[in-house]
Batch of 2 targets.
Target 1
Amino acid sequence: MKYGRAVILAAGLFSASAFAQSSVTLYGVLDTGVEYVSHANAAGGYVVRMPGITGELPSRWGMRGSEDLGSGLKASFVLESGFNLRGGDSGQGGRLFGRQAWVGLEGPWGALSFGRQYTMTYWAISDADILGPDIYGIGALDAYIPNARSDNTIVYKGKFHGLTVGASWSFGRDSTGTGNSPGQGTCAGQVPGDVNQCRQWSAMLKYDGTYFGVATAYDEQRGGTNAAANFFDGVAPFKTSSSGDKDARLQANGYVNVAGVKLGAGWLGRRVESNAPGGDVHSDLFFIGAQYYVTPAFALDGEAYRVLVEQHNARATMASMRATYFLSKRTAVYGNVAYLWNSAHARYSVSAGGGGTTPAPGVGQLGAIVGMRHTF
């Protein structure tokens, strides 16, 4: 009897000790505003709306946790759900945890994780792209960039004295068939006898110093049933239905901090090779931006972008300016204005905030938003 009580007591102490070494955090972002977009359709009409997807940052809630396993080893996880604050509906095709859902191990050698995760495209550009996933940011010209994530993915990242190396491998980048990223179609993968169908891999090298950083990354998606490639320039997406088809992005970028100003710039080249008609298309996307804190509570930033799609004879230039005032550590209000110039054959939209604002070919768009963001 005494032995049984001792076992129960020891088990209770062990559980309490284990609990004390683990943690789970609930977090989130609520971000929306009121947006105006000119020339929102081919007839030249404008629209005033609450954007469906993003303001400064996409709205989300999530849970992250970790447990110290001893000997420098730690278990960790993230479950993150995106949603539309305007309507309360889920993002990422209605997935419960569409932004991130992974579990992994971390140690002195780096971190290894498994699940739905960001690819190296996302991590490589995160510091040089000043505006990030802003409504008038790089996502207006290539919606994949701020949504670069895949299902069925193994990710490794390690940081060694300022140098970060990373790689990802997906066995099938869209396992639920809801669309892995905007305009890419669905590509469930894992077809018996064809290990390449819907496969995706990426790799990154990144260096961050005291005053500057540089990064490069490569991201390759293989084709498969229902997969497609969209260049977001008004030309209809074309199929990449063969596992031999490729949709690849190579990037190089950097940033520097000088006299309180952060400057960032980069290039992203995309190459799609497909057996579908018109399926060999190349594009180049350039960006340069700056950020300055006028006071600790007031930030000004802006970015300029230029995209060229050779085979579509489509070009566009976009300039975006933003002002953010921090009411507290968790709450901020902002104003953002941008203008996009389309070439004669291009139909890019200035707003990445929910679509539905495609102008006539060659017509530019003005976008403006006043919004509020709260984190918890």
Target 2
Amino acid sequence: MTQMLPEPANVDAPAPADERNTVGVSQGRLVLRRFLANKVAVVSGILFLLLAAVSVSAIGLGPIPGWWKYDFTTLNPQNNSGAPTLSVFPFVWGDHPFGQDRIGIDYFAMTMRGIQNSILVMLVISVVGTTVGTVIGALAGYYRGWVDAVLMRITDVFIVIPIIVIGAVVGRATGGLGVVPLAFFLAMISWTTIARLVRAEFLSLREREFVEAARVAGASDARIIFKHILPNAIGVVIVAATLLAASAILLETALSYLQLGVRAPDVSLGLIISDNQSAFSTRPWLFWWPAVFIVLLAVLVNFVGDGLRDAFDPRQKRFSLRRTKEQAASSVTAPASTQARVHPETPSS
């Protein structure tokens, strides 16, 4: 008599390793865990903070003095024809590790001051630009209709004009007022990308059940926008703000290089390159030191932004060759073992 075959068993694939042990974990801890798992982003964040701390502590900030003995305005006697005294093998720091410019100002102090101004511009543009873009995008995405049409047409006007052109006009008018006014006015033209991203997120979230429940409960539009929808879109806002920070560094550098940003006697990395570009063939260190730190700042902020994007959006998985091979091997062996377990040998009647 033929033996009845049992019903095929449902064999569930094991959950990925990065999605286990997440039950009962808050969203903030989950995002932090994903970010800390990205070693490149963590190291970039640490290096950025270390660079900011060195630049502030070296020459001081405002009335607070720093530990470095020279400042970025005092003329000093030329030492070794202005060449850098820094040596790696053997390690020697010297009086002027980054060298001196044509008139004897210490180049290390000038570079640290330029890093300070770049970070300050980055912070102001990120905070102000993100705030303006978030408010405009939230209003456009929530109310839609004529509000959306008006706000998005204003956004389109800023988008179609190259930002370097608008920035040149703004820098020409405000560059002599100082770093903070320059950064503030640059932030007023740097919010367009964030506004579009937040608008798209609000258009999706406003149709969710929790928003309808808040309306039924009698919540005002402001409460729904800032208490219910915005916390669910905060990931998009933070990532966009981080990427805006890297663009802000390059924008300020470009304007200062064109003599339209930070003005003397203050110092900017772009202004240092602009003032010393004629000495590139004879004193290349006057060009390379600020150029290295411009690239370093932009790259570090971009890596941090990529890490935050991956942490807030778990759907964007990084490709792993080892993980792909393991999943392929498990998918090949699992059907064979299931077949042997579900269809055993049947004895002859």
